[in-house]
Amino acid sequence: MSSPLEILNTYWKHGSFRPMQEEIISSILEGNDTFALLPTGGGKSVCFQVPALVKEGICLVISPLIALMQDQVDGLIKKNIKAIALTSGIKYKELDTLLDNCIYGNYKFLYLSPERLQQEIVQERIRKMNINLIAVDEAHCISEWGNDFRPSYKKIAILRELHPTVPMIGLTASATKEVVEDIIKELDLFCPKVFRQSFFRPNLGYRVAHVLDKKHALIQILKKYPGTSIIYVRNRKSAIELSDFVTSHGYSSTYYHGGIDAKEKTKRFQEWLTENIQVMIATNAFGMGIDKSNVRTVIHYTTPESIESYFQEAGRAGRDGLASYAFLLKNEHDTHRLNSQFIKVLPDISSLKLVYRKLCNYFRISYGEGEQTSHNFEFTKFCKTYELNTLLTYNTLLFLDRCGVIRFIQRFTKKSSIQMLTSGNHILTFLKSNIEYELVTKAILRTYGGVFDEEVSINIPLIAKKTDTPEKEIVNILERLNDVEIAKFTYTRSDAEIIFLVPREDSHTIHRIANHLHTQNTAKIKKIEAILTFTKNNSVCRSRQLLHYFGEEDTEDCNICDVCISRANTTEPIDTQKIQDEIIELLEVKNLSSRDIVSKLLYPEKIILTVLRQMNEHRVIKINFDNNYQLAHK
Predict the structure, then answer these.
(1) Which residues contact 615 (CB under 8 A, 6 or more apart)?
(2) What's the pLDDT score for residue 533?
(3) How much is the pTM?
(4) 3-state SS class at 409
(5) Confidence band, pLDDT 50/70/90 cuts, at residue 178
(6) pLDDT given at position 211
(7) Residues 6+ positions from 528 with CB-CB distance below 8 Å
(8) What's the distance, CA 18 to chain centroid?
(9) H or E segment and range at residue 545
């Protein structure tokens, strides 16, 4: 057998392990149940992949996300390691063959979702496999107090019956003390060796900035801290708009979200990775497999929904150990958004029953029927048909998915899309002689940016509403534009797929999962409150606040966060006369706005604005008609 270090060098081309990896691997090879809590970038996957390669047999990996499974499988295959993921959508006959391959085909890794594990055929074949290790990735999903609780994770314990002597490892990047205890209990880990790496990052300065104008603050950060950057937003529209804004200010940028096809995602990621693009503006879809050590700033343009999300995303900065910064831009709108987007739309029992019943009726599922049936699903049309709140309905479907009642598969890459194939002038000329296309075409051009550069997903019901035109007629118009090669139009009649996993039983189905709902809602409210408290607490070191949240008590001030810097500044008297002299020097050259002055001086914004107000009151300076400051004697 090769040693762990030899395997690391052979497949990963690394000469040494990261902190704690070697100890975790040794624990597994000694046959111990193990729990590893490593921060983002700590190299969790190596902790189970290396020992699995040392031992004979196949490693069974339980993971909640299809994309995460596929990402790891692709990485292993590129290293010439046989790995497979049994994702949803695989037909029974194919599944039968793939499971046989795992028994007889010399595979080293089998990735499964916790839901797939519940199938009888899967359990039956796992019993016959030579399992050398069971790895439970994203193990916080097993805890009702975790960030992404999935009730199906609680059924993983069946593996203890199928292979009682095989060691198990649970891994996660973010878990509070309460969650850690819950994971160990729910996975039934026997006398586990627990490895917890401190989350302290001495080179990472956490900065919370309360600002009125986030866009202005964003550009000032990019100016002050050159280098590779990630800007996190919470929706796709913001990602596109902010990318345009950043580009217009002279920075190379692109955007990344779940709606971009896989080929384009890879292209954009590679451009950013090789630093052809400096700034990546992304939703939380941009997270898995990011292995770039020199990210200098991570900027949260909007407040995330939990400290776990914030900490994982912020932790992508400064993995090379050099000074880096994690900014969170906040204003009062963020509190309102978090409440309206996450708290007010949490499903209750009545909404759960209503949406489930309507869903069954929508697909004409009879009582006691429907198990394992698959249906194309137009989410917007469904909500419109029954006059349902879209956010509340979306959250309800996600909860039904997590509880194993349905599988809600969103086809982000198969939505209707359009790309203009000719110039704007040529389109205008065409529309003059084909007036029947004008209203719809111009509505699309005004609604969607970038249609001349790439295929853009379009919302046909939205265009129908804007133009007061039936959806069917819009589709006919766009198909005709496609025929005459004015545009490339791809039409998809559904944006999702619903698979019913259990027979329809209405209230009985919902009662079985009702207890999870209250716990989930309570946990989500607590997480929103925790992130808001973090952004408002300006008296305790940011790093200390985060470490305390994750159960680390023996901590020190970081001396580089905004709280520590502010505290240090208050101990040194600021020479306001010096600031005044510097302002006069600037205004002798050019009239400037308060923003411009703040950006050019290396003093706290609050103090600069106070000095400006005093200078204006004493008529040293004045405000002109352009709302800029100028010297009073000019």
Answers:
(1) 580, 583, 621
(2) 96
(3) 0.71
(4) strand
(5) confident
(6) 86
(7) 305, 306, 338, 339, 342, 343
(8) 25
(9) helix 542-549
Rg (CA), the chain: 28
Per-residue model confidence as pLDDT tens digits over 29-65: 999 999 999 877 678 999 999 999 999 999 999 998 7
Query: What is the number of alpha carbons within 13 Å of residue 148 lying toward its C-beta?
Result: 14
Strands 324-330 and 295-300: parallel
Question: What is the Cα–Cα distance from 580 to 571, expressed in whole angstroms?
Answer: 21
What pLDDT, on the 0 to 100 scale, is given for residue 452?
87
Q: Work out whether strand 295-300 and strand 406-410 pair parallel, antiparallel, or are unpaired.
A: unpaired
Of 51-60, 137-146, 265-274, least confident by mean pLDDT is: 137-146
Both structure tokens of 450:
């970038």
Look at residue 530 in the predicted model and tell me its pLDDT: 95
Residue of 562, 569, 505, 515 lying closest to 539 (CA atoms): 562
Distance CA 182, CA 174 (A): 13
Residue 587's pLDDT band (cuts 50, 70, 90): very high
Distance CA 516, CA 511 (A): 10
Q: What are 388-391's contacts with CB under 8 Å, separation 24+? A: 388/354, 388/355, 388/358, 389/345, 391/341, 391/345
Q: What tokens were used for 50?
A: 């290396």
- Residue 419 in contact with residue 445, Cβ under 8 Å? no
In this structure, the chain runs to a length of 634
SS3 322: coil
Taking the C-alpha atoms of residue 171 and residue 20, their distance in angstroms, rounded to an integer, is: 13
* 48 contacts 171 by C-beta, under 8 angstroms: yes
Count helices and strands in the chain by DSSP H and E runs: 27, 21
Q: How much of the chain exceeds pLDDT 90, in percent? A: 52
Please spell the DSSP secondary structure of 143-183, one letter per residue.
STTSTT--GGGGGTTHHHHHSTTS-EEEEES---HHHHHHH
Give the per-residue pLDDT at 253.
95
Q: How far apart are CA 249 and CA 219, in angstroms?
A: 8
pLDDT reported for residue 494: 67
pLDDT at residue 40, rounded to an integer: 72
Residue with tokens 């700034």: 279
| Mean pLDDT to the nearest integer, 122-130 | 94
Report the sign of the C-alpha dihedral through residues 340, 342, 343, 347, in that order.
positive
Q: Which two tokens stand for residue 326?
A: 């994690």
- Euclidean distance between CA atoms 84 and 616, whole angstroms: 70
pLDDT tens track for 506-530: 999 999 888 888 888 898 899 999 9
* Domains of the chain as residue ranges with CATH: 4-196 (3.40.50.300), 204-330+537-560 (3.40.50.300), 340-413+496-526 (1.10.10), 416-490 (1.10.10), 576-631 (1.10.10)
Backbone angles phi, psi at 416, to 5 degrees: -60, 140
- Predicted local distance difference test score (pLDDT) of residue 415: 66
Tell me which DSSP letter residue 506 carries: T
Q: Tell me the C-alpha distance between 268 and 230, whole Å.
A: 13
* Sign of the four-CA dihedral 497, 503, 507, 513: negative
